[in-house]
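Dear colleagues,

As part of the handover before I leave the project, I'm documenting each prediction I ran so the next person doesn't have to rerun anything. This entry is a single chain, and its sequence is reproduced below.
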Amino acid sequence: ADVANAIGAITSHIAVHRQVKIRPDQNGGFYIEGLPGAECFARYAEAETCAKKALCDMVRGLAREAGTSETEVKLETINRIASTASGDRIFLECILTALLVGQPDLPKRQRVA
């Protein structure tokens, strides 16, 4: 059983994937959808900085709970922009996706005294 568990731990991995969206609000600011308690921001750059940090922190925390000490998070950003009939560009949303993949931490063996 110990050998089978060791082989399973070596060949498996833990993956945590989460996504948030930054969207314009009705007052000309921006809000983050998908984060509990996220506030509204007057500037896009502030919303983006907050969203990236909170998303990475969330994914790292979930990964620790799942059993890996890996901390490298890969972020993907997709901006959705539409064009009006007159050719003006309108920002619809920014989709931020975070992925953390890591090996499970091996359980520490207890010493027998």
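The helical segments are 2-11, 44-66. The chain has a mean pLDDT of 88.

All the best with the project,
I.
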